Amino acid sequence: MLGVNLRPVVGRFWAPVVRGLARAGVTPDAVTLTGTLGAVASAVFLIGNGALFWGAFAVTLFVLLDMLDGALARARGGGSVFGAVLDSTGDRAADAAIFAALAWWYSGAGDNRLIVLLSLICLVLGVLTSYVKARAEGMGLKVEVGIVERTERLILVLVGTGFTGLGIPYALHVCLWLLLVGSAITVGQRFAAVRSAARGLRLPAGPDRPADSPTGPPAP
Question: Distance (Å, rounded) from C-alpha 135 to C-alpha 128?
């Protein structure tokens, strides 16, 4: 939930940049693509090759663009449905690239199987965290709970990676363990929220009806 609280502060920080980009005709989709491709490339070519501090630093810069595209869309009169899907897809791609790069490095020259395991588990839990919310919203339910969302996930993995690159021992271990536990709790929180919000709702019977159309309880 940290991302929700930081959004107004970040919005004020980016406001002059947003106005300049809007006047220059830059589109939110272009910002999204730049941020995604930059984050993925930084993760693959820097973190994946053991340049942990500079990789974390570069990824952080590109991830900050993710906070810019939404503000730019609003400044241009509102975002598009395609832009929303592109933004969400880009977030998943950047997250996956970070954890995959860590797993790649530590399965080879980094030689630390525990970090590989933690990275892979955190990657799976991150996907589940996002999927439960997206699936619930596709069913018409609102799920806004979780102690570890994308902002917290990125802070933990990038801080741990950067500090390890600076030579601080066990920084990545500690951050990944915290992320693993927090992400597991978040998945549980979201399932509990869905269960509560969906109480009494049933999927319609019949092969010709869409699966993503819950209905209320039958009338007495």
Answer: 10
